[in-house]
Amino acid sequence: MNITKKSLLMLAMAAALVCSCSDDNDQPEPTPEPQPETSVDQEITDTEMRMWGTLKAGTVLNLDRHLVVPAGKSLTIEEGVQIIVSTAGVGVNHTPVEITVDGNLYAIGSSAKPILFSVDPSLRTDANAVKGLWGGIVGTESCAEMVLDNVIIEYTGAEVIEGSPAATAGIYTAGDDAYPQVTTNNINGKYVITNSTIRYGASDGIYLMGGNAIVTNNIFAANGATGGEAVNMKAGVVADVAGNVMFSPNTNGLKLSSSGQSETRSQAKVNAYNNTIINAGWRRDGEKGGSIYVEKNILVNIVNNLIVNCKFRAMTPKYTDPNKTDGGYDDKSLIDYNFYTGGTQAVEITGEATVGNPLEGYNQNNKNYNPAVDTHSIIASVGNPIDPGFLNFNINQVPLTQCVYNSSWSFGLKSGAAALSGANGSLTPYFAGGMLVGSTTYSSPAVQPYFGALGLN
To answer: Within 10 A of 364 (CB to CB), how many other CB atoms are there?
Structure first.
């Protein structure tokens, strides 16, 4: 292991102080708790820590500068590791701390011991839910592989400023953009985000601008402050998005677009199925937002999703002019066999907003509701509300604008639940046969014959 003098990896971890005094019964001194080993190489400057190797299980890394995984190198993070990011920023400009992945990142936790990317515990408050306290994880054009499995990423979304690594790399624009929680930008990359929680970010949960991706079995919560989606995908992406719960995204649960398509950046292709999207769009003013937005010639298959208490149904602009990069979706797409429902709650209509209740929004004469979309979907109405049958989530009590996620909620379905039947959408996932990332083959799940992420629980 190559550790410099400044080794900020004092992952020697403020080595647990062990009391050396004995009690009146002259008991032997307690045995010190074994400290996690480190197996990393690193190069440290005043502004960044370049690291590769393995962060061993249980390590706590206090990160007060940018973390970079160099091109051609890999960083593996084991279960229970905590990366606690400073909110003071880097340098005289206090540039938000960013994790830049030029090489490969394999963050593989467990359900019992997830990996945590967060801020100091004192800052993990409801008030800071979408304040954007640090930059995110940015996979650059040279990032070949990234796995986030049983990982928690929270409190990101800081503004990209002059000198931010993502601005210097030309990925985001200083002064105009805020960091998503996870970014990818390699059209040949392989990315897996699974079994993870991506919450409380001031921008998108994930923003994929390229690569083959499997996004499954995650919880996205409170993504976006004044805009932002849970899942945002652009040209150069081929992805399966399934089994995810998306709670209170500012704008949409899914924004799927082939924006940026060119001779070198291919048409985006996304399968999105068996996801549960809840309370989407209500924190966004005006006519934007609502649940699912599809645009700019993307090829999609969107089936068997459960949309509850969202502002609008699936929308696609300029749908009369398909197959153009400035229009709606590729007309070979399928957006159907979804379930739209909601409760009786309402919000005050302000500004350019046109609806105050989800059941009104699903049934309004919206210019972006394509008549070829959702022809077989179940769509509840003001006169016909339908309870989807969640195990523990009252669709008439949780405020439409609430963004704080309650871990006691359960979005599985009760026996006899309405959302258990009528889901007839079918498709073949792009990665049903598996995708080798690192030394592990990850596969997309099959389409399930119910609406939503979790089925009968």
So the answer is: 13
